[in-house]
Batch of 3 targets.
Target 1
Amino acid sequence: MIERYTRPEMGQIWTLENRYQTWLKVEVAVCEAWAKAGKIPASAVETIKAKAAIDVDRILEIEETTRHDVIAFITSLEEKVGPDARFIHLGCTSSDIVDTAGALLMVEAGRLILKDIDALLATLEEMSFAYKGVLCIGRSHGIHAEPTSFGLKMTGFYAEFVRHRERIAQAVEDVRTGKISGAVGTYTIVTPKVEADALALLGLKVDPHSTQIVQRDRYAHFFSAIAIMAGGIERLCTELRHLQRTEVLEVEEGFAKGQKGSSAMPHKKNPISAENLCGLSRLMRSNSLAAMENQALWHERDISHSSVERVIMPDSTILADYALNRLRRLLANLVVSPDRMQENLDRSYGLYFSQRVLTALIDAGHPRQASYVAVQKLAMQSWNSRTSFPALVKADPEMVKVLGEAFLDKLFDPLFYLRHEDDIYQRVFGRCK
């Protein structure tokens, strides 16, 4: 299922082959910086570029003996490059390579996630305008409140995902940081100038002060931004799940020819995509906790973070990519039922006009508490007798006395609730058409 919704590029980022290729890219950048400093011959750099090649099987074979992945990686390169391989990894510690490469990988993954959000935003914007002015009941506590529009529902989610995009863009920029500062970060052999030159070649910022690693608050920021976005995905999918309940049925997920909903009940059409996405959102959030647990390491470094990151780096970014693409397709194929929305509006007998009646009484000079009691009495009568609330208000002598028949005839227009819809669209989209 994952392959159906995930970009091939996202999975490719986290292959062993690409991981080692990225390590090599960092090692070559360091060699080029050393050559610029006059420490190693330019001809050696050219030899390294020409001969260094990744052989995943050989690296894994060597690692069986070394029990150290970076040493196995360097040993494999030495076998291919020859004498000039002595310049590879000069002055570096393993974390210089792993953390700097990790930044490159997370930035690449993060930028794909930003593209996914852009595609989702385009779909949400399209839906917002397609259903602008389409009345539906708004609910609080699951109970009918006052009318809104289905377009405004989508507009709210659009505005939220704009914020998710901003947070993830900030997190990508925060994690776009490398370090080539050697063991414990004191530049024992390598120099700050070599670090700056190497990272500039890679398009990364220099960590102002690294220890032996880039500190993991940056990573916690990155995975927390994904987790907060996952909360937004679950919020939207929870709304869609509620709206698909049989008693509501204002929307339905697209149902493909030949699709089945239940092994026992042939009539079932279940909100499976929305439910799946709610579950996957919980995984992304739990991974952010693991990233935060990685912040507190011993002294200048330990290795307790490494095993965690080998899981959460690919898992969270692949899940985010998958979830955003699946959500976009779910929305693009969503069956929306304005007729059912109107039916549901009518199910509460016009009780959603209660605040408008209350406010009209107050505006007419009637005491607030007395007005509330009078409106609530009619509202309860409407609900218990399943009678039109507007009809009861119009028939009530006290209401007619205070508000007048002519005013009451104009009071119960559902479109009143959308009179500021354009204002909201203008704020969110910069346009209302």
Target 2
Amino acid sequence: MRHRLTFGKRIFLTSIAAFLLGIGNSSASLARPQKAAKWVSSWASAEIGVDPKETLPSGKDMTLRQLIRLSVGGGPIRLRISNAFGNSPLEIAGVHVARAVSPASSRIEQSTDRVVTFNGAQAVSIPAGAEYLSDPISLDVAPFATLAVSIHFAGLPQRQTGHPGSRATSYFASGDQLSADSLRDSNKVDRWYYLDGVDVQREKQSAAVAVIGDSIVDGHGVVSNTNRRWTDYLAERLKGRPLAMLNLGIGSNCLAQNCVGPNVPSRFGRDVLSRSGVKYVIILEGVNDLGMLTRDAPAAPEAHRSLVERMIGALAQVTRRAHERGIKVIGATIMPYGASGYYHPDAASDADREAVNAWIRAPGNVDAVVDFETLMRDPARPERLKKQFDSGDGLHPSPEGYRFMGNIIPLSIFQGGDR
């Protein structure tokens, strides 16, 4: 038998439908994804496999406190911990972060001490080859603040991951001292281990400038805890933009072959493309490739041609990868090193350097050029650095050279990256 729907029943069922529809809309509203947080990398370090002579002690119950200087401020923050070169899991019992009292002390401001978690847990096991992001940490940080990151290890891989050229002092001591005002009975070492980056969350959109290179980027010769690399000077000039500055230099690193640490194309994804908010990359790399070719003996013309081709090929490849991510590429020309007693280059080596620099300068290959070669060379002997810019080894800049490098880069090349 069919039942006819009366007017009263129709109103009742319509009301139920409207009520259920309202519940559905409310649920859909609750399930709608929220606007993504605006994270930007404020500090970063390029990791390598640590030389066995420079590893941390193998004891399992140890606290390591590392000091790092941010570029831009904000909050909350999050940490990036790397076991990229480990051969077994990195076992961490706990991590804390706090503002440091000074760049040259293990003391922290106790009121700022925060427990760091990973997926809600204080202990974390990071697999070999992996990098983990922490949960957001409720801590506001000012531009150029010095943070103390304390890690209590439960077990270290045989092959450790770190950055030997920190130019900053780290402290390690036995036991769980995560919340200690300062580490008791600590040892000092001017290296970083496992700490790979710090991101900050910002209300306004921001951007980061990544600088990838060798010891000239890493700051060879800079006194520890002074923050006087050329990238530090540039960061201070960018303070009002605001643009973060990420130093991804590795001492004795190479552009197109493995020297110390992975070559630039093989580390470009981890060190540059994976960082939060990178909109610019400066590439200053290649002097070690050039120097190694003839360090022990002269090389045949074909070896010189092959090296130049591989170096230009590496630059072209990382430029293409950066452009695919919307990152502006700034090529820095390779500075003269004709007075280097370590590499003792010949005329053919200088011609190789000029050939790579010609590619960097040629219109259309990169988006902008910082011509350090022209700015830093001695006009009377263009194969050498100016005397006031030479540290004395014919290869690395002096303190005045680093200051000049950081202050000479036109800020116009970063146009629009902070909007």
Target 3
Amino acid sequence: MTQNDKQEFLKKAKDFMDSMPYKIEPYSSRNWGHPWHSLCSYHGKLKPAIAYFLIKYFTNKWDTVLDPLCWVWTIPFEACLQWRIWIGNDLSEMAYVISKAKLEKANIEDVNRIIWDIEKYISKNKDTKRIEDLINENKDFWFNWKLESYFHPDTFKEIITLRDYFLKKLIITPEDAVVYSSFLHILHWNRPYALSRCSHPLTPYAPKGEFEYKNVVEHIKDKINITYNKWEFTNYVHWKAIYWDFNDISWIDNSVDFIISSPPFAWSIKFYMQNRMRLRLCWWTPEDFKKADQKFLDSKQKKDFSIYKDFFFMCNRVLKENWKVILHLWKTNKYDMAEELSKYCLDYFDVVYSWTESVQEIEKHGIRDKWWVTEHQYLFLMKK
């Protein structure tokens, strides 16, 4: 890394943070961005406008951009829309399914064939002994409120049958992913299209109102029709979606130009708790929830931030010589993530710039911050 390279990166970082373009209309709108960013709601995802400008401002066309902790692929999705070669990785099954739906451009005719197959499967199997047993197995699953308390009994039966249909599949195709992501999105909310009684997009807030039967397949069809009416992919680059632990990324060694990522926020939400109902009706078992603290970074870092030594070792390994890392972080009243992570990157990276902005007076994703977050942070690193 030459001094000129470092100074140029520093100047761009300062210019970016001085202007904060994602806070200017229309980008400051909570709903700004490609409509497929909203294919399935997911608590904790990065605001699309931030991802858009990080890609636009710091990378060039055909650069290879890696997000090793990409949640529901917000950063890779923006990269692919801007003609970057994207690589996205996450360890969550739900995030991976949503990524396949967003990034692999499933054909609507093939999606409709999956829906037709599901419709037949539900009709044939919903009253079988197998589904009855699965309903009994799932209805008492809860975090303060039982799963069955959210749905009309006939809707719940169809939900469990649909879950059974996908659990039998060895391989999830992009078409499967679109259908399942659409299903997960409409699973519960306070909107008329939701399959549940009126409830918060976060569980375990109590559902309210009367039990109303809602046909699962018909509601999925409605969601998919709306989604495909917003199919706008003028520019689009296919590349790699990975479902691994970040430590296992090795085949891309020395091939990445930029790492742009938003690690889980310390002492903030646990993605697997805030998305608990969708995860349960995806693939997770009660045992998966018990083991999550030992598996996912957002819990591991609470015990010991030195886990990021492994993260930066990986970043150094996959990056080309003299290339860069940008991390979007949050500061809480317990931890300054930028300060903590700066300690563990120094074997491989120089800290070029760090920036914070207060978020105490704003709303994010329609929900006022309840997780002790006080500031957004940006950490700009350059490989030694």
